[in-house]
Design goal:
The complex is a heterodimer of chains A (378) and B (369). With 378 residues, chain A is α/β, with parallel strands linked by helices. Chain A is built from 15 helices and five strands. The mean pLDDT of chain A is 85. Chain B has two domains: 236 residues, no CATH class; 103 residues, abc type-2 transporter like domain (abc type-2 transporter like fold), CATH 3.40.1710.10. Chain B has 369 residues and is α/β, with parallel strands linked by helices. Helix content of chain B is 66%, strand content 9%. The chains are: A alpha/beta (378), B alpha/beta (369).
């Protein structure tokens, strides 16, 4: 008998794929992870995750009400951003803010209208709850908007010339309605698929070792390449199914516009899926036990994809060292690609650069997996 | 009884910390994560690249643009001379915004007609776009005030005096770094507990445990204590780092914080043990931990506000202990809250803890086969 059998045999590979597929079909949890889980998570997160503030609870404190203050109050009531409540005194309003019942206070002091008419420059006191600084900043912006509209209105009514020296006229490209969901949902797909890919494969090799079936595989003539390919191919197909479902949900359910081409989307998704599966296999290969594999999967996949991928926190504003760390998170590249393909179109420079990085990561992971997998007993 | 519980607890610790890799995954990641995530997770923007397209030759336009150069938030990436250059820069994400001043900017300004500053913003990340626009507004507002003063124009009849409580400079790092205390604790506690019963089930030692004189209650306590001890220790390390490394002020009572931490850990342990008791294999235990952890983190208010969620999703968050603990840590750190402001957060967590721990103990007994 030949000592060095051929590295590849289509028949042996088919057999392995069949074995892995049967395992997947017989234990329906993998199918659940690949199809049911992305749909469920995307459904909850797609609706749950948003950075746009609506119906912000604000306290309006008017010490001496008159027509002028009423017109400002009605400006807040009409705004879609605010759900104002009138509170008689500033002490009560501050108490309400301590108890987190309101997020901001707008305070018109005694003699506001008198000052306004006599000298101008009458102060409108605004206190925002700074605990959630991002929201606080948005609230300040919205309050500023209401205030400016009100100023324009009362100046008009009084025939005043209230010409602001420089006006800002802005156009927001790619997402003119500024719906945060439009960029969060593509990012969520990257986070969720990272998770799915890792969950599908992070334990499959560790499991075979623990159950002792790896030893059984070793005495057969299959090569290590065939074992790895036999693991990658079925889970890749499974993962792509989940990916297709997620993308359809983004387009049809969450109405995220898809500006780019399906071809580009498919190519990038396939590359990313392969990378996450390689990552799962990598974890599975270096961990000796399912326990360690499981912990590693949580630590190196979900949290970095959530925090470091640019899905929600802007990478450009992170310190340079941390930006370097984000480069080793595959989701970073996929988030960049998805946000561009969905909202801006096929921007080839972004597409190719990020795909190239993904390909490099994938290749490196596969090489390490190959180096770490031996056809020998431990 | 105490002796039996202690013996079981000791055994749990040995299982968890016996081999090097298991020790590593419990100890190293939390410390590395608080540092990396602490720096990474922030909604603040800086070094925002922008391009200037100035067709105006006057002094005023240069003065306005100087406000951007000196802002510390924006960094000029390019000066462009034609409309055609705008799209490539924005599309490729080379710049986040383009400032365009028309040829008659200074003339309009001088003649009191009001001049326009056109801003084109990349809205792919709409939150960053909005924050950047807010900065643009405030730079322009400062310019307007100065210009009006220098040219003897009357100011507006009313002005906004804005103040932020609890976080004067609105540094969003604070919000997130404090949240990481809750995040890492949930992760570690689930890691420690979610596989603890499943591992024994797979090895068959859980049945042996059940035939010992240990009651399910004792098993529960013995299995909970390691998670609690590891949780409190890691939380203390993380809290110390938040205070001394990230310089977030601790304004409220430490006792209120640790009471919250204790109840939070109990509820997280309850959930972890329940998952573990429900699963037959470690893989199922891990799936369960993932399935709870991921929604619990994303729907906790850690990064995105709860109030924006639709009501059915908000109701779900009431089942999430992290939701309450996040409010507690943030209130204690930034608001200086003490017990009286936090009761409404303690009791729901306590109920979650009681229910899940009881269920876990019941499941230990039932699942004997």
């Amino acid at each position: 008998m030949q000592r060095h059998h051929r590295l590849f045999s289509a028949m042996r590979l088919r057999g392995l794929i069949r074995k892995e597929s049967l395992q997947i079909i017989r234990d329906p949890s993998s199918i659940g992870i690949a199809f049911f889980l992305p749909v469920l998570l995307l459904l909850i997160f797609g609706y749950g995750v948003s950075l746009d503030a609506r119906d912000i609870a604000i306290a309006l404190v008017v010490d001496s009400p008159d027509p002028l203050t009423t017109s400002l109050v009605s400006g807040f009531q009409r705004s879609e951003y605010f759900a104002p409540v009138s509170i008689p005194s500033i002490q009560e309003a501050e108490e309400a803010m301590m108890r987190r019942r309101v997020d901001a206070i707008v305070w018109l002091r005694e003699g506001f209208s008198r000052d306004l008419l006599a000298r101008g420059g009458a102060p409108v006191g605004v206190i925002v709850n700074g605990v959630d600084a991002n929201k606080a900043r948005l609230i300040e912006g919205y309050i500023g908007g209401v205030w400016q509209q009100w100023l324009a209105r009362i100046s008009d009514a009084r025939g005043l010339d209230l010409q602001v020296p420089v006006r800002v006229k802005y156009r927001i490209w790619f997402n003119p309605a500024v719906r945060s969901r439009d960029y969060l949902v593509p990012g969520l797909i990257a986070v969720i698929m990272t998770l799915i890919g890792a969950m599908l494969t992070s334990m499959v090799v560790a499991r075979e070792w623990e159950r002792g079936t790896m030893e059984a595989l070793m005495v057969t003539p299959v090569s290590i390449y065939e074992i790895l390919l036999g693991k990658i191919i079925p889970y890749f197909i499974l993962g792509m199914g989940g990916m297709a479902l997620s993308v359809s949900m983004a387009i049809f359910l969450f109405a995220v516009p898809l500006q780019g081409s399906l071809t580009a989307l498919f190519a990038a998704s396939a590359l990313f899926m392969l990378t996450t599966i390689a990552m799962g296999l990598f974890i599975s290969t270096v961990a000796d036990s399912q326990f360690v594999a499981g912990q590693m999967a949580i630590v190196v996949t979900f949290l970095p994809a959530f925090i470091l991928s640019g899905f929600i926190f802007d990478i450009g504003s992170m310190p340079a060292l941390i930006q370097g760390v984000t480069r080793i998170v595959p989701a970073t590249y996929f988030v960049a690609i998805l946000q561009s393909i969905f909202l801006a179109g096929d921007i080839w420079s972004i597409f190719f650069v990020n795909c190239a990085w993904l390909a490099v990561m994938c290749a490196v992971l596969l090489v390490i997996i190959r180096k770490k997998s031996h056809k020998r007993l431990r | 009884m105490l002796q039996r519980i202690f013996a079981l607890m000791l055994k749990e610790f040995v299982t968890l910390l016996r081999d090097r890799k298991s020790r590593m995954v419990i100890v190293v990641p939390p410390v590395a994560q608080i540092i990396i995530f602490g720096y990474a997770a922030s909604f603040d923007i800086n070094h925002v690249p922008y391009a200037v397209y100035n067709e105006d030759r006057g002094l005023d336009s240069r003065q306005l643009l100087a406000g951007f150069e000196g802002s510390g938030v924006f960094e000029r990436y390019a000066v462009i001379r034609s409309d055609g250059e705008v799209a490539p820069l924005v599309n490729r994400r080379k710049v986040l915004l383009v400032l365009h001043l028309g040829p008659d900017f200074s003339a309009n300004l001088r003649q009191g007609r009001g001049a326009d500053l056109q801003v084109i913003v990349d809205g792919r990340n709409s939150n960053t776009a909005m924050i950047a626009l807010n900065y643009v507004q405030s730079i322009v507002m400062a310019f307007n005030e100065q210009w009006a003063r220098e040219h003897g124009r009357a100011g507006p009849p009313a002005v906004l005096l804005q103040r932020a409580w609890f976080n004067r400079t609105l540094d969003s790092h604070w919000f997130i770094v404090i949240g990481i205390v809750a995040l890492l604790n949930l992760v570690v506690t689930l890691e420690v507990t979610a596989l603890s019963v499943a591992r024994e089930r797979e090895a068959g030692t859980f049945d042996q445990l059940l035939v010992t004189p240990l009651t399910p209650f004792e098993i529960l306590v013995g299995k909970s204590l390691p998670g609690l001890i590891i949780g409190v220790a890691e939380a203390t390390v993380v809290i110390l780092m938040v205070i001394f490394w990230f310089h977030v002020p601790l304004r409220g009572s430490l006792a209120a914080l640790y009471l919250g931490l204790f109840i939070f850990l109990l509820s997280a342990i309850g959930i972890g043990l329940m998952i573990s008791a429900l699963s037959v294999t470690q893989q199922q235990g891990l799936m369960g931990a993932f399935l709870f952890l991921v929604p619990a983190v994303i729907l906790s208010g850690f990064a995105t506000p709860l109030e924006n969620m639709p009501h059915p999703v908000q109701w779900l968050t009431y089942l999430n202990p992290m939701r309450y603990f996040l409010i507690i840590v943030r209130a204690v750190f930034l608001q200086g809250a003490s017990f009286d402001l936090l009761w409404s957060q303690y009791w729901p967590m306590a109920i979650i803890g009681l229910v899940t721990l009881t269920l876990a103990a019941l499941l230990f007994r039932r699942r004997m086969y």
